[in-house]
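Hi R.,

As promised, here are both runs. First protein below:
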Amino acid sequence: MSGSHGRGCADCEALPEALPDAGFLHLAAPLSRTGERLRKLLRRSGLEFQEAESGVMTVRLPPQGLEKLALDLAGLLTAGEQLECPCLLSAERGCPGLAELLRTQPLSRVVGRVRGEWVRQLLAEQRLVTHFQPIVEARAPERVFAHECLVRGRERNGALVTPSEVQRAARAAGLLSQFDRAARIQAVRSAARRDLPGQVFVNVNPNAVHDPATCLRTTLDVAAEAGIDHERMVFEITETEDVADATHLAKLLAFCRHHGFRVALDDLGAGFSSVRLLRRLKPDFVKLDRELIEGIDRDAFKARFVEKLLDVARSLAIPIIAEGVETAQEWRWVEQHEVDYVQGFYVAAPDDPPRPPRRSSSQRPV
């Protein structure tokens, strides 16, 4: 199908500027006891501050003072207090104007931005890399059906940062949409460069896609430029347990399918990835949550639960992928229960270039 048309998402594409080195932090404590703890901390820190009759505290930040204060506040206040404490960074001491008030945000976001500055730099410097993990046919494990693109961060010294670590920091810093977009683009371009056979699974976090038509536009354009047929790409919808609105998921799947892509629902068995949601969305693939697969050969409750999920998926004619298979016993269980495809360290670890699957038809676990 042809590429998308229209503008992309400005919020997904633009990185915020670095936090100011100095200036003023305006804080409004939600509770009197929170305010008293803030005063004690500020006096103990030797920071100059003033408090208005409204209860808003204005703290003068010395050069490089924001990072230390933010970390001190994170250690002092609970996550709930940080979330309920509105604040504003400003270059001026006086009462903020309307334009600045529009930039008011929870203290938790400022703390996240300080802690996640390394993520902003990582994205600005395009230090993302893609590793590929094969997904093989359970009945013929030497046959690679697809590769999942797994994006990692790379520190300036070359060390790799796990995707979960980058994603946690990006979410806390309000950079989840920017990270998810950059990861998708990196995955598509890397897969095209490697000229991978079979299907290509690219992760999409639905919490980072506010409007599919704009947020996914760049990804569609990059896929077209890279020459990857839409029929070969599978958008793997991740973290479905954190999505509060199933209708949003349905719209995301409908958009992907409209443009000729297939869709996999990740982490089946967790949160929203329930039997009810599976019946409503009818994805092209379902992936069993790795926590369900771990030790399934020794856990009768897990086994019964997964068997019911498999029955539902089969009744809907949806192929099943077991991810996180790490032992011969787990492999034997999913093979005996006629799971369609297998992914995990027992097959091959993620790498670039991708590793061939370790198992062959003559090396099946016994």
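And here is the second one, sequence first, then its structure tokens:
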Amino acid sequence: MPFFDKAESLLSRAAESRHSNLLVSNTLWAVAGYGVRLLIQGAYFILIARCLGVKQYGAFIGTTAFIGVFGPFVGLGSGFILIKNVARDKGLFPEYWGTGLLVTTTSGLTFSLVVTSVSSLLLPIPALAVMFVALSDLVFAKMVDLAGWAFQAFETLSKTARLNVLLSLARLIGIGALALTEGHPTVLAWTAAYLAGSVLTGLLAVVWATISLGKPKLRRGQRGWNEAVEGFYFSVGLSAYTINNDIDKTMLSRLSTLEATGIYGAAYRIIDVACIPLTAFASAANAGFFREGKHGVPAALQYTRRLLGTFIYYPLFAFVALLVGAPVVGWVLGRQYVNVTDALRWLALLPLLKTVHYFLADALAGSGHQGVRTAAQAGVAAFNVLVNLWIIPAYGWRGAAWSSIASDGLLALAVWFSASHLAASPRGGYARITIAAG
């Protein structure tokens, strides 16, 4: 009947408007949080780079990059599973929150011991400093991440943003205090302050999420097989992405020089900063991919097109800004970092490439094809490592930059081809997604 058709149309538009307004609100909160975090990180980045010098900074960057490879396996995809299920049924939060905390803590401590035990063979800094960074990044910072995902599942990114700011602020206070008291702190002193800030923030994050969202409890029985596999795929995929993003810095520290690592690491740090609005927007849209993705890849791709149509102007602006503003970075960091200008100009295309593969990869994950996404990311990560083994000894940081551009471009093509192929399949790329019972 016309009346009911009209009513249904109005309700549909109202729901779409509500989701659109929520996306805008969450994006603004995320951008604000990441923006403040950007200012704080910029301050402690300059402090670290100037206080440690290019060699010690290169050693620190190589260490954090190596530890970062293990980071995605901490929690074994618990955060991803929490967002997916709680975004659809808020009543599941206590069980996924409790399981996430347990798995994150135990796996984080395990990987910290592994990293520290092999550090003398691979990393150019003391084992105690490696342990401090590992505990910071693999245990306490992961608690902050899990709490942020918990708030994200409820689409309250205002609180996620505050957590991100708090972590960066705690680290800035630590390195700032060291710079004032010691002038030129060693890597060991800096990593101790780095750990202290992470411990404080991690504990506060867990308490805040528990008070705001509910007490954790352990689930009865084991995680469902499908859920465990999906979490594993997520961990492998995120690890592959991390390898693709960061392993070149560790390889530079071993296959080239610490000076080259410091130059390239400083330039890539600026790229990470330039990608903060992308990260914020993608975080705000994350729950939406799961809502749309339950209808198949075509629906997720339609959502992706709307997001790209809104956001694509930013990476184009960032590309021009990085090219024009690159000389300022070397001046701010000091004469040791004069070559950062050239490195930054080589890497300026990365925000645009990352924008494309971020949203397409999320479309695959949201529609139940995390395995396809993982395969693409793992294949490109392997390509990146193999190319770097040849190109870094020959061309140093320039080779690492060329490899990064090629790898991000290849990943964008791979996820685009995969999503297009699945969308054209007879079932519309639909993958059955289940929510395991307690």
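A quick note on the second one: The radius of gyration is 22 Å. Let me know what you think.

Best,
J.
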